[in-house]
Amino acid sequence: MSHRRQISVVVNGTCHEAEVEARKYLAEFLREDLRLVGTHIGCEHGVCGACTVLMDGVSVRSCIVLAAQANEAEIMTVEGLASDGQMHPLQEAFLEKQGLQCGYCTPGMLVRAYELLREDPEPTAEQVREGMSNNLCRCTGYQYIVEAVLLGAERMHNA
């Protein structure tokens, strides 16, 4: 019985074929095999959200999703937000509004915020708080994150 699996995934618009250990998590595959180290591994239990990526457009905790489960999927990591060397409006807003401090939760926050704004381009502050509530931060107290998401929404809407 083979403990390796052949997978084909599209990550940030680029197709990747790889053979992975059956037990390798998606976060490990992204970081170790593809060298996309923006996806952080925090709690390793799917609780904190630092490892959040989009899989077929829906946020998942890549620390508890096996790489083999992502076979044939389209993945977007935090690196997929920037375009042509330019930060995404959400990234700029997080920087401007101090929506990050140590930065460990930031990649997952940005990916979740992107998904949230795709679903509702003009959320209220309360909707942002609710929508981001599954991503944990130990540094900012969340108010700066909410302000950053709202500013990002405004900039994305006006772009």
Description of the structure:
There is one protein chain. The chain has 159 residues and is of the alpha+beta class. The chain has two domains: 4-80, Roll (Ubiquitin-like (UB roll)), CATH 3.10.20.30; 89-158, DNA polymerase, domain 1 (Orthogonal Bundle), CATH 1.10.150.120. 33% of the residues lie in helices and 17% in strands. It has five helices and five strands. It has helices at 26-33, 89-96, 106-119, 125-131, 143-158, and strands at residues 4-11, 14-21, 52-55, 58-61, 74-76. Helix 2 (89-96) runs antiparallel to helix 5 (143-158). It is globular and about 50 Å long. The model has no long low-confidence stretch (mean pLDDT 95).
